[in-house]
């Protein structure tokens, strides 16, 4: 990374710290939470020039009461913020999938209409306070029961990146709730494999892709015509991190990923996902 890039990231992080300090003066610790204080300390140390390594992205959670309804605003700030949009996701236990998708889509469009280079977290909070109640249905209508299609599928999901802790938790929690197996590899790029019945995997995918992503898509879909447990390659769903020995590299070790896939009889998929043959050792 050249000096001008480092200087720009340092400037952006200074803005993030200043904005966070302002928000902390306005909200209590219960209302505004920094998800990882070690990351915050790393950001401060990097800005002050005490360490050369880039910090991880800041994850914040804002808890708001709107018309007696609790909303969570999950925020992930990349090194490019405020020049790039923040990664935002709104949660409320009374919202169904469609309502979650609608409120997050509208919030994303609102943030996208603001000037880049300017702080916008408080604007997002204000928008949520003004509009959140419009998405809540107090009396849920019971949805008709749909008979499950027991056909088994496996989806290979490719994302530009997966850093946000709130998204990673949602990916894991929803998979466990729906009895889906597979894994999630965070980082850049992010890779997710989900396998299970068609209905369960579709429900998981519809909810996850409704989040605010820079880019995410189902790259490969595999299907088993018969309900056979031999089709399933994973016993549980877990997050897997394949660390690269090069501490200056933010990417995962692709050699370790390939070994993991081979151990689960999925090595064949590596070339289909990345377009290249696997190598025993990965470089940055």
UniProtKB/TrEMBL annotation:
Residue ranges of domain RWD in the record: 18-135
Xref: Pfam families: Prp3_C, RWD
Domain of life according to the entry: Eukaryota
Listed InterPro entries: Phi-like (IPR017359), Prp3_C (IPR010541), RWD_dom (IPR006575), RWDD2A-B_C (IPR059181), UBQ-conjugating_enzyme/RWD (IPR016135)
PROSITE patterns: RWD (PS50908)
Positions in coiled-coil regions: none
PANTHER family: RWD DOMAIN CONTAINING PROTEIN 2, RWD DOMAIN-CONTAINING PROTEIN 2B-RELATED
The protein's name: RWD domain-containing protein
Native species: Zophobas morio
